[in-house]
Design goal:
Blueprint (H helix, E strand, L loop, with lengths): L1 E3 L48 H14 L5 E3 L13 H18 L7 E3 L21 H6 L4 H15 L2 E6 L5 E9 L22 H14 L4 E4 L9 H13 L4 E5 L6
Parallel strand pairs: 1-2, 2-3, 5-6, 6-7
Antiparallel strand pairs: 4-5
């Protein structure tokens, strides 16, 4: 199994630029070139920078050619950290770009890919409005790119709020009876989401949906695999307490949860 998270791709990364700059994101031409060679961004990347496209491509080529992968969980944060200047369109395009790189790398392998979104994949960063279904610009504009991975039913569900349930499939194409991958949208529990004070109980009915899924999986004798971005210990207090209660109740059903966010 491969878990990818917090790729933070940067198409404006320039080798040789200053990696130790005064900004939140370095290694771009706008921050200049250092006189000290030790502070020049390398070909593969720089410490205070986001990822060059060719580094992602090389990594995926190595993984596919060297390792036996039977599933990919991709848990979001795709755009770079220029949060002061990015837009809905830019954030969307980074998700679409990484989607295409994954399709190219895993073409012909039959490896199932289970994608979810992070706090940098809606705009502005950390924020998503859950006052009505189907109103998020990035989700509406990249969900069709994920159709071949998640299927039409899950895509229609995902387009509403950014979460969905997908059958767990082996590389042979066989579905594990009753088992599901539950893709969470952790923006509903992101402490930096300024929209949440308007709905503290259960934004997007996410917890109700999660419980319904777990009840169904338990009844079918299946297994649940949960994927999201922000880790549960960083959830808002009320959501986190109810999520923990569900995990304790269904601990025999949930095989694991995969999250990213902290870059650890």
């Amino acid at each position: 199994m491969l878990h990818l998270s917090d790729i933070h791709l940067d198409t404006e990364y320039v080798e040789g630029t200053l990696w130790d700059c005064d900004s939140y994101l370095c290694c771009r031409e706008e921050f200049g070139y250092p006189t000290d060679p030790s502070k020049a961004a390398g070909y593969w990347g720089g410490y205070l920078c986001d990822l060059p496209v060719h580094t992602l491509q090389n990594m995926l080529e190595h993984i596919v050619s060297t390792h036996h992968i039977d599933s990919v969980f991709w848990t979001g944060d795709n755009s770079p950290h220029n949060t002061w200047s990015n837009t809905n369109e830019e954030v969307t395009n980074y998700t679409k770009l990484i989607t295409q790189e994954l399709k190219t790398a895993f073409k012909g392998t039959n490896v199932p890919i289970y994608p979810s979104t992070g706090n940098h994949d809606t705009w502005p960063v950390n924020n998503q409005d859950f006052s009505a279904p189907g109103i998020n610009y990035p989700i509406n504009h990249f969900v069709d790119d994920w159709l071949e991975w998640i299927g039409e039913e899950a895509a229609a569900e995902f387009a509403l709020w950014g979460y969905c349930s997908i059958p767990f499939v082996l590389t042979s194409g066989k579905e594990l009876t009753g088992s599901r991958v539950l893709i969470m949208n952790t923006q509903v529990a992101n402490q930096g989401n300024f929209y949440l004070p308007g709905d503290k109980f259960d934004p997007a009915n996410h917890l109700s949906w999660l419980e319904e899924q777990l009840v169904s999986i338990e009844a079918a004798g299946g297994i649940a695999y949960i994927a999201g971005h922000v880790q549960p210990f960083n959830f808002t207090e009320q959501f986190g307490a109810r999520y923990q209660a569900l995990m304790e109740r269904y601990q025999h059903v949930v095989r694991f949860g995969l999250f990213g966010h902290t870059h650890d």
